[in-house]
Design a protein that fits this description.
signal; Glucan endo-1,3-beta-D-glucosidase; about 40% helix; about 80 residues; single chain
Length: about 80
């Protein structure tokens, strides 16, 4: 498996040990998040993989401005690293 898709609205949030084990044992090198849930992003903080976080439609227009995009990352991604 090369790609793991993560939905944070799932009823069970995977622990760090589970996500690490899944990454290592299955060769996962890409992770796609469907929102920026800090609980879920934090579980992947020390995982060596490429990450993609989907933005909601309401955020797309704002992200055209690089300053807004950088602020969004600071608020939604960096706290989990």
């Amino acid at each position: 498996m090369e790609l793991m898709r993560i939905f944070s609205h799932a009823s069970i949030i995977l622990s760090i040990s589970v996500t690490s084990a899944a990454h290592e044992s299955n060769g996962i090198n890409k992770v796609k998040f469907f929102d920026a849930d800090l609980r879920v992003l934090g579980a992947f903080a020390n995982i060596d993989a490429k990450f993609m976080i989907r933005l909601g439609n309401g955020d797309l227009e704002k992200m055209r401005d690089p300053n807004n995009a950088q602020d969004w990352v600071k608020q939604n991604v960096q706290p989990s690293t």
